[in-house]
Amino acid sequence: MQSRLPLIFILLTVVIDSMGIGLIMPVMPDLIQSLEAGDLGQAAVWGGILATTFAVMQFLFGPTIGSISDRFGRRPVLLIALVVMSFDYVLMALAGTIWLLVVGRIIGGITAATQSTASAYMADISKPEDKAANFGLIGAAFGVGFVIGPLLGGVLAEYGTRAPFWAAAILAAANAIFGYFALPETVTDRIRRPFEWRRANPIGAFRNITRLPGLGRLLVISFVISLAFFVYPSVWAYFGKEQFGWGPGMIGLSLGAFGIGIAIVQGVLMRPILRRIGERNAVMLGLSVDVLAFVMLGFVTNGWVALALTPFTALGSIAGPALQGIMSRTAADNQQGELQGALTSINAVGTIMAPLIMTQLFFFFTHDKAPVFLPGAPFLFSAILVIGAIAIFIPVRRSLPPRSETTDNVR
Q: Does residue 251 form part of some domain?
């Protein structure tokens, strides 16, 4: 059990990071309106600003925090981030102006960038052949948080718009205390690397990481997958209402089912799939499933059919952890934080770009003068993106051995 405590802590950290976003979502419209005394449309604009601010901070600080963990260790970075995150939620719970909420999202985006450090810790404690499957556990933890967060936030909202923030603060603080006693350090002098600003910013991290053979293309594929995947949180609520006439309850239920599906696929099915077909074939399978799922969602007109597709669409989520496992094996032991930081920044860029692109596509194909009424157009665009990712991966796939070799040398 003692050896499992660090793994439990890492998964709890990812769950809390994921929950923290969804936990406060149900109260944000009312909270923003109470601070700004505006209408719902104005509250939505401020909500977009807050979400974008959070994602931009993740983009900017993902590589920095990852590189700091390569130098000073995973343990202090994770514990300090959780403590700061707890105080940040207290700040937001007490915020009396919209600008304090903005400050809270700036701090929150920085502390949530420690997902890169959590992934690096997972890489540190995993055998080379287990890395992809263990990254799947991180994806499953994210899915669990994605489901629990909005549900718990909705329940706590009954006690006031500030209640979810206090709950998030308590969860972060409790996990920090747990980590203090349960989390050993994994960065030893053998893999410790000096901190360099030229490698600790997004541009520098990308430039340095992409020098490793094949990794540049794999990072591009990761970005494309991220951009395509974020079609779900970007337009699903609008798509469900327009195409199927769903209300908020049904939309929440469908998103919850999708999150559960991802948690089952990445947490339970990932390991046997990898054992049977290997990482590179798992990437191809996941991308192929994504293309078919996006095309079907692009044209489906029956809500129950869309719900029935949930297990199939969730199966596509095997591509991300498998790809991450390949990249983690390519990078040296002392580059794991830097690599995971770069991946965090890539995902953040997808979070920033996807809402802008996908909502504009949805509007273009659903407004009164649309050339064709096609609410599912954003999903078809995602299908095109993933086809592009497959085209990039095919030549890279040929250069990979059936079971990728690990890189043990320290650069």
A: yes
